[in-house]
Amino acid sequence: MVSSGLPRPGERCGGALLQAALRAEFAGFVLRPDWPAPANVGAVVTTCEGPSPVRNSAYGFNVGTRCGDDPTAVTRNRAFLRDALALPSEPRWLRQEHGIRVCLEAQPGEPEADAAVTRDAGVVLAIQTADCLPVLFCADDGSEVAAAHAGWRGLAAGVLEAALQAIRTPRARVMAWLGPAIAARSYEVGGEVRDAFLAHDPAAASAFAATRAGHWACDLYALARQRLHAAGVARTFGGGLDTFTDLRLHSYRRDGATSGRMGSLIWIAPY
Fold first, then answer.
1. Domains, in order of start, for the chain
2. Is the separation of the CB atoms in 116 and 146 below 8 Å?
3. Starting from the edge strand earliest in sequence, which strands make up the sheet with 41-45, in order?
4. What residues does 28 pair with on adjacent strands?
5. Which of 21, 161, 197, 206, CA to CA, is 20 to 30 A from 58?
6. Is pLDDT of 53 > 70?
């Protein structure tokens, strides 16, 4: 984890100056989608690096509550994320289950769902990943945003289609961005994964390459693009990163029990 010489949140320093310094430094450790979203749509992905308020954590900058990290440390990281990025509200985290449930309204705690949609300005949607694929959506006029957690199970079961069903904006006016996930060269799966996708669409075979008997390299990005295109979303951006080989990013397959989670956030600015 990268250490900073700046005071940590809670340490005495000029409040406005400290916040400005924290925001400036933290901005260098997050990813921002490269897509033509309207100016009122904000989006960001955290990494495992950055000026965390938690010192010397094996999990790095972690926003996931279910990976074994100290819950107090996660709470502090989430609060720091909110403050450092000046988010318009507390992110709406989900209890992700690798399913297709979509959260449409604010609920207490972390509701069980793998996608969320909002048309309300100031609401921050949040997805946690560490190899699975985060997908962000927005209407081309900035009136609606959504976020989905697409591991192979959820992707095969139709989580992207479920999110699109909940989006009121016509598909022709929706764009999607594929956040950091494990790349095909690092993601070997068994035949049951390939079979699950081919049962839905035989064309999914193009996203798998044989590696050894009964095993395949799986391209989650290609599978997501196929699903989105079939559902009517023609504008898809992102992809190309590899959480396994990029040490800035959390990867459960690489780090196992000490892997944290990245946060993929999207919101409509409250003008």
1. 34-45+93-268 (3.60.140.10)
2. yes
3. 41-45, 262-268, 124-129
4. none
5. 21
6. yes
Q: For 9-27, what is each residue's pLDDT tens digit?
A: 434 334 667 667 767 788 7
Q: Are 114 and 96 in contact (CB under 8 A)?
A: yes
Amino acid letter, 53? P
Return all residues near 29 (Cβ < 8 A) that are at least 6 apart: 2, 46, 47, 49, 50, 51, 61, 248
Is there a contact between 151 and 182 (Cβ–Cβ < 8 Å)?
A: no
pLDDT for 28: 81
Exposed, middle or buried, 211 (CB in 10 Å: 0-12/13-18/19+)? middle
pLDDT in tens, 79-102: 999 988 999 999 999 999 999 999
Report the alpha-carbon distance of residue 55 to residue 49 in Å, rounded. Answer: 12
Tens-digit pLDDT profile for residues 99-147: 999 999 878 789 999 999 999 999 999 999 999 999 999 999 999 999 9
Q: Residue 173: which residues within 8 A CB-CB, separation 6 or more? A: 139, 140, 141
Q: Locate tokens 């009121």: which residue?
A: 168
Q: 85, 71 in Cβ contact below 8 A?
A: no
Cα separation, 99 vs 84, in Å, equals 31
DSSP 113-148: -SEEEE-STT-EEEEEESSSEEEEEEETTSS-EEEE
Checking phi first, is residue 125 left (phi over 0); if not, alpha (psi -120 to 50) or beta? beta
Neighbour-count burial of 12, counting CB atoms closer than 10 A to its CB (0-12 exposed, 13-18 middle, 19+ buried): exposed
- Tokens (6 digits) for 63: 């926003």
Encode pLDDT of 229-247 as tens digits: 999 999 999 999 999 999 9
Is residue 29 within 8 A of residue 263, CB to CB? The reply is no
